[in-house]
Amino acid sequence: MTTLLSSLGWDEALASAYPLLLADPDHRPGRVLRADRGVCTVLTETGVDRASLAGSVLRAASADPVRLPCAGDWVIVRRWPDDRTTLEVVLPRRTVIVRRTSDKDSSGQVLAANIDVAAVVEPMDSGPDLGRIERFLALGWESGAVPIVVLTKSDVSTDPEAVAESVRAIAPGVEVVIVSADQGVGLDKLRPLIAHGRTLGLLGRSGAGKSTLVNALAGATVMTTQGVRRVDGKGRHTTTYRALIPIPGGGAVLDTPGVRGVGLLDGSDGLDKAFEDVVDLIDLCRFSDCAHEGEPGCAVRAALADGDLAPRRWESWQRLQKELAFEARRKDVRTRAEEKERWKRLTQHSRGTSRP
């Protein structure tokens, strides 16, 4: 195990995934720093390689785009006699954040792989968007990583603690960290999250301050940053790709591009964790099939009436539940269509081979 890769999380469990391949001197492990179309920048024990995708990887991705390598993935690359490098295998992911794309077939897109902590980054300058935070937290919980909320630009807020309290109210079981990268506030709480072998993933919209935060944690300018537009205060798109940045003396930070929409694809467990307070109330209802529309003994309606549950929070829960149910129905229809097409091809092949 190399010191360089072990600082990013390489261990014996990963090394044992493909022992025969790794025993070949032409093959070596690495971690994807950046993934472009058909080419990945991979950090190995010998340095940084540009690796094209092997046919087996492309075939797997054609069946499921989520299997395309992404920043943060552990991979096996091969060096050929003509000095070409190919990415041969994507090792099993320990955690993965997947959002729904906006295309017609509603496929998944990997935002980050193999992160230990998923930090939802939200700026204080324009007031936190609670609905967006809830969506990102659902993705974070579903990924298997530990989600936290990082409130940036606290130096421009008149009452950062009050803002943090409003976020804590919709983030049960989640640590909320107040940060000002420019003034160094709160960075001491984030540094343990990028200790040796650990990776911190940053999720949020453009202008949230993710790249500035990466630079502050790295102690150098490693990501380009831009200010907000004076007209509307919205952030410009600075990072347009996913990038894993090794931190000197520690682990790594994975910076993701700002995303406008945070679509949920298949994350009922993550949604339940993000709305644990609502789920607990539903469990207290007298009837297990309570529709929460006026039935006797409805704990949800009682909490809404008493002010213990905010109407916005309940409406957000209902909206995201409907979104997941809709995606589940679309997935079921797509699966049936694909199965029908598969049987059609098998039948045609069988008829062709049975002819004299």
Q: How many independent structural domains?
A: 3
Low-confidence stretches are 227-239
Task: Compute the average pLDDT.
Answer: 86
Count, helices: 12
Task: Provide the descriptors you would attach to this structure in a database record.
single chain, 356 residues, alpha/beta, OB fold (Dihydrolipoamide Acetyltransferase, E2P), Rossmann fold, 3 domains, 6-stranded mixed beta sheet, 5-stranded mixed beta barrel, 12 helices, 13 strands, 35% helix
Structural description of this entry:
Strand 1 and strand 2 form a beta hairpin. This protein has 12 helices and 13 strands. The termini are far apart. The chain has helices at residues 3-6, 12-15, 19-23, 55-63, 130-143, 160-168, 187-190, 210-218, 268-274, 276-284, 299-306, 311-353, and strands at residues 27-36, 39-44, 47-53, 74-79, 85-90, 96-100, 108-113, 117-123, 146-152, 175-178, 199-203, 243-246, 252-255. The chain has 3 domains: 3-90, OB fold (Dihydrolipoamide Acetyltransferase, E2P) (Beta Barrel); 96-255, P-loop containing nucleotide triphosphate hydrolases (Rossmann fold, 3-Layer(aba) Sandwich); 268-338, Probable gtpase engc, domain 3 (Ribonucleotide Reductase Protein R1, domain 1). It has 356 residues and is an alpha/beta fold. Helix 5 (130-143) packs across helix 9 and helix 9 packs across helix 10 (276-284). The radius of gyration is 23 Å and the shape is globular. Helix content is 35%, strand content 22%. The strands form 3 sheets. Strands 10-9-8-11-13-12 form a 6-stranded mixed sheet, sandwiched between helices.
